[in-house]
Amino acid sequence: MDKMPTENKQWIENERKKWIIFSFISLLLLAVSNGLFFGLLGILLFGFAITKMFIAVFAATFCYLFIIDKRIKVSEKDFSVLLNQNFPKLEESAQLLLQPKNSYNILQNLQINKIALELPKIKPSALLVKRFKIIIPVFLIVAIAAFFVQKLPHQKENIAKASPNVSQVSKVKDVILPQISSVKVKINAPTYTQITATEQKQFSLKVVEGALVKWEIKTTASAKKIEFIFNEKQVIGLKPNKKNTVWETNKTLNQSGFYQVLVDGKKSELYQIEIIKDLPVLIKILQPQQQTVIDFGMPQQIKIKALLSDDYGISEAYISTTTASGKGESVSFKERKIDFEQKIGGRQNDLTKIISLKALGMKAGDELYFYIKAKDNRGQESKSDIYIVSIADTTELMSMNGMMGGVNLVPEYFRSQRQIIIDTEKLLKEQPNITPEEFKNRSNNLGIDQKLLRLRYGKFLGEENEVEIGATAGDEGHSADDGHDHGNKEEKKFGDVSQIMDQYSHKHDNSEDASFFEPEQKAKLKAVLTEMWDSELRLRTYKPAEALPFEYKALRLLKELQQSDRAYVAKTTIKTAPLKLEKRLTGELDKIITPQNQKNYDGNQQKEADLKSSISILEQLKQNKNLAFADKKTLSQVRVYLVAAASKQPGLYLNSLKHLGKINEGRKSNLIEIAVVQKALFSLLEKDISLPKANLESSNTDLGKAYLQNLKSKQ
Amino acid sequence: MEEFKLIALFLCLVLLAFLIFKEVKRSNKNLLVLRLIASIIAVSALFFLNYPLKYEVSQSVKKEEFTLLTKGVNLDSIPKNSLPFFTTDSGIYNELSKNKVKFLPDLSYYLSANPEIKTINLYGDGLAQNELDRLKNYQINYHPSKNLNGITICNWSATIINTDDLVIQGTYNNPSNKPVKLMLSGLGNQLDSVNLKPNGAFNFSLKTTTNQLGYFTYQLSVTQNKDTLESQPIPFEVIEKQPIKILILAAAPDFEYKFLRDWLYQNNFALALRTRISKDKFSTDFFNREKGNLGNVNQNLLQQLDLLIADDDELANLNSQERNAINTKIENGLGLLIRIGDEKPTSYWAKEFSFSSLADKQDKGFSFKIFNEENKTTPLTVENPFYINAQSGHQPLVIDERGKIWVDSKISNQGKLAITTIPSSYKWFIKGQKKDYKKYWSALIGNIIKKKEVIEQLSLKNQFPKTNEETMLVYQNNSENIAPKIKIENSAIAPIQNQNFPNEWAATFWPKKAGWNKVEVNGIEKQVYIFGQEDWQTANQFQKISNNLKMISISGKNSVEAEEISEILYREVSNWIFFFLFLMSCGFLWYEAKLSTK
After folding, report:
1. Does the complex come out with an ipTM higher than 0.90?
2. For residues A332 and A343, what is the distance between their CA atoms, to the nearest angstrom?
3. Binning pLDDT at 50, 70 and 90, where does residue B557 land?
4. Are residues A697 and B457, on separate chains, in Cβ contact within 8 Å?
5. Chain B residue closest to A712 (CA)?
6. Looking at domain B456-530, what is its CATH homologous superfamily?
């Protein structure tokens, strides 16, 4: 009983500490989550580094919460109040536990004894569970998201970075002459590439095109002369310091190849020079199509969308347009340079531009040619393909030009569509002056005309008509008792089998219906019919203004059909005078000489022959044979070809050139080295080798011949 | 002996007749029947005493067995009761001497010393040919080694014409349950590979192009999970193409000839082209050959020719003399390719083919399947399409997708005739489909061109000749009756002429060096490949086993597996029986006479 108050005080103190610790943990988690969340936002939206953003936000949140949050700094008294509020079992007496033992009165003592029994059942930390239930899932989600974002390849980061991602590190391992103690190679890429200067301690180079390379060679002892030999042709001497131990030179490298270091006449092995080429700007036009026709009624503008990319940077890009207007000999061209809406720069540009054709002064029938031209920051130009945009010429369609001159191949029915258009336009013009009913009536009539026309063309395609063509208009709305005579309907002949069968049969392959049209023409006709359908629909719903574009398109397609027909017919009309066969080949020919021509082909046969035999020589070498003098000569001849190949593609051929050099010097090579040389030489041989060749037959042919003779005599 | 036997028989019968006569005449007839029987028995016993009675007996005999182990044997597969084991292979003896294997230095000596041995149980890869020959009179129970793992059969042509493909085909036995990969490599390249499934024997085929010249050794290696199981050498020789001479007779200049001419010229073919430009006026071109007179087609002009290409019209223009000259050359192997422009053949040769026109036009053109080519060509437009009717004895070279023949060929004596109805293959060339153009003309020319005779040929009789084994070198040439002088690695050997083919000579030698061995024939240096002891072991093993099985099945002695066999014996009935019978019957006759006299 005596110990109880101190124990109780201890209990409340412990619980308070627990409370503070858990509160602190929750605060920490909250700050971390917040930091990660903003870090994620930063990396995803702006490409900032996640760590910087995280540390900043975390620190700020933590400090703020630490100052604001009172849970961490809760006093014993406040804590007892908190307990009283949350646990009714304490009966508002928690603060009694804090009082010193001696100060209890009887009532207080009784109360303490009462609540002391309840104390083990009270867990104040449970109050924080709710808080953790929210914080922990949030923390987990943000942490997992951050983990994955961090793992993903940072494409966006690369694009956003100022300097391009070009590695100038050659992966080839060098063997350096013993006379050289160390080498320092400084690579200064051209400034436009924005690549920072690098330094390396080996000879093999992998540099950007146009890079200035500076060598500094330290020798173990003073040397008399150090030279570089590039591609076995160009020799560059190095400048020494006073003691002849440090040698220097520099060179701008523009071509792949290899070089060799010569120290006092001693040759090193070959070192590779790999050049990373600067590519011109890549232009991709996403919109419009390569050929675009703007029909009547369509907005007279085009939207150009293009994607440009370059390896170091784009300095300039514009659209070059040419408008062609006029016909025949009076065609005039106008060129213009149009800039994009966006600013050009960086390594990748999404560019758009809306060009108003009217602003360019284009009329119906004119054409616009455009291409995109771009320059990278090295000054290399590149051009896209030429794109064509043309405005459909309605006046051309309406003109009678084609019909007047020459042979009139155009059947009568081609004119009706034009008539419908004229009527539609007339109707629209007169609309304010006529009653709506009359307008509707006339629109409907036009629709009927359009239908008739469609049915007519449908017949060419072998489509089934719901009604006879000529009869359609008249029959519409007729019935048996409409008050007028329907003419003499043909009496059904009794017993006419074909007529009865016609009633029930479904005729398709009528020889008349099988049209003479090419599939291409048929497709066009079908397109015409679709346009007519659309036009009819609008006319019948009293919207002639909307029908007009479809009418025009139908007419344009019809016109095209007509043009293709004309070209085909015109070809057949030429006739030549008949030949007089008896006069052929009777001219005097004595003064005609017989031309003779002789030449011998001298391509690269020597090279091919050398390469072929050298591979065989190397095969012999594999067997440790001593080479004949002629073989050695062939191998040294072949080296010339390999040097030429290696200066173009050092990565492929330099290694084999090294090994061939070893073989030519008479040093012993292992099988793998010889095979490497063979591989290189084989790849230099012509690949395209399918040529006719004679089959071989056994030398013992006399027996066969005798057998054949015998067979023949038996027959 | 037989005569005496007959005389004896006759005498016995006479005696018997006399005795019977005497008995019958005898007054006392009480025991006549018994006496008669006794007389017959006595006489016949007398006869058989001299000529003993023989009878047949069949008897099963257990044979003496003998167990012989050869290389590749698996001891677990042999029943233990067949001890002792013998071997003639010192390798096996060293390896298995603990298992009571006895070594025989000479098999035939041992067998003749032990004539009771009649059955030989042969285990392992079997015996060499010469040893097998000596065992013809023995019954051999052959138990070949099982579970050969590796390349059991492999073939390729040892001599390849430059630019031809090296094709390696064979069978791989893979008893393991993992797949294996076969890889052909050479000249530092991995050239071709194939994956083979586990559990079973599978055929494989590997291919690579050649463009080099000379003697080469490629490697065929087998890998399983990156472990190399075996690596075998593939030696072969690439020889230069034979030069080809072509003559073209054109009735008029056209693009087809122009492109063909340029293509042949650039590929170094010797070509003469005669184009008719007017009546009896020709324009002539000579490419990669000396000038000559092409005005008249005669024997002289055709002498060195391998192929004649001409259009039907131009062939019809030839006079009969020229026609005869061409015919004679075709009989001797010349190839003739005719280009025909319409369905009505006019020349003598084109009339051997018949044609039909194609009813429908094809705008897209025709895709052709060319003889011996796997892929179809890209479409080629043909303006007046007509095709060749199929005939028996003809070989189509180019057909279209529907199986219509566009280029047909037939044999005419030793030469070949071909006709093409494709008028403008150069369109392939223009369209950039040079591959199709080359394929087309390579197939046409290659198929009908005169065959080139191999002047001399050197080969080894075995497929895998090895060091330290007797090897036979076979040499063929076209100059008969002069023995070639052959030196192998600088030591001369003497060849023997084949009795049936006088142009074939053979010589045996014992190669010492693995790899390419130098062979000089009449001073010209050549090379033959000798394999090392470790090369192609499985293939050799397989060959030996099948050889043994074949030999044993021919002699038909492997069929009886029984350990005992039945034998027919002749036995004599003992003389004592007849002697006893004779005594008894004579005694009875004597005693009966005694009794009756009493």
Report:
1. no
2. 32
3. low
4. no
5. B413
6. Immunoglobulins (2.60.40.10)
